[in-house]
Amino acid sequence: MAKLIAIEGIDGAGLSTQSQLLEEYLRKKGHKVILTKEPTVTLLGGLIKSALRNEWKVDPLALQLLFAADRANHLAFEITPALKKGFDVIMDRYYFSTIAYGEASGIDRNFLKQLNSKFRRPEILIILDLPAKIAINRIKETRFSLALSERRQFLEKVRIAFRKIFQENKDIAKVVDAAHPIQEVHKEIREFVESKL
Q1: Residue 84: other Cβ atoms inside 10 A
Q2: Which pLDDT tens digit goes with each residue over 134-145?
Q3: Burial of 48 (0-12, 13-18, 19+ CB in 10 A)
Q4: Residue 79 and residue 48: Cα distance in Å, rounded?
Q5: Distances 194 to 23, 131, 175 between C-alpha atoms, Å
Q6: Predicted local distance difference test score (pLDDT) of residue 148
Q7: In 3D, which of 99, 105, 12 has the Cα closest to residue 58?
Q8: Which of 56-60, 152-156, 161-165: highest mean pLDDT?
């Protein structure tokens, strides 16, 4: 049966790298697999990305509603059809990210959980854990400027929120130390995913 796999963590933890490595690994093992990302490349996703780059002013609550709208479309038109066709779907960020980042922004956690409660729960959840100090250093190496959301203090709050998410989802989740070398992190992820597939 096809599985929905969510890879989560703070900015700089290596989500895109690890998502791509997992996709390549599963393909080589003969799985039909799709890698997708949130925010999406749709009009809704574009609005979110431009807001995150501070190109327009958006209320934090309005931003959460945009994320939910983008996700509803993503599930309806891409994720659910792929799963029905037997594809495993790897998500580079899913609703856990909006809960963690939203809570760190001061939005009520119960409201965030309720807002996302109708969305399909993944069968596998990987949380890449990384101290904010290391994350900031990595981001500085790969990007020219730091977005507001990438400040160290804020990222530590997000990291704490992800720990709460792990506690609530232990039946499907694994925390992986993202400070380790890329291939070590990949090995730990693939072993956990294989145990669940």
Answers
A1: 9
A2: 988 887 765 545
A3: buried
A4: 19
A5: 13, 27, 15
A6: 46
A7: 105
A8: 161-165
For residue 78, give both structure tokens.
Answer: 């891409």
Does the bond joining 39 to the residue before it have cis omega, within 30 degrees of 0? yes
Give me the residue label for tokens 């977005």. Answer: 147
At residue 197, the pLDDT reads 86
With contact defined as beta carbons under 8 Å apart, do 8 and 162 qualify?
yes
Q: Between vectors from CA 179 to CA 144 and to CA 148, what angle results, nearest 5°?
A: 35
The dihedral over CA atoms of 18, 14, 101, 158, expressed in degrees to the nearest 10, equals 120
Measured CA to CA, the distance from residue 160 to residue 103 in angstroms comes to 10
- List residues bridging with 90 in a β-sheet: 5, 35
Q: Are 16 and 134 spatial neighbours (Cβ–Cβ below 8 Å)?
A: no
- What is the reported pLDDT for 147? 59
Extract long-range pairs of 65-72: CB within 8 Å, 24+ residues apart.
Answer: 65/115, 67/38, 67/39, 67/95, 67/98, 68/98, 68/115, 68/116, 69/44, 70/38, 70/39, 70/40, 70/42, 70/44, 70/45, 71/38, 71/95, 71/98, 71/116, 71/119, 72/119
Q: Tell if the pTM clears 0.90, that is, is over it.
A: yes
| More reliable by pLDDT, 192 or 53 | 192
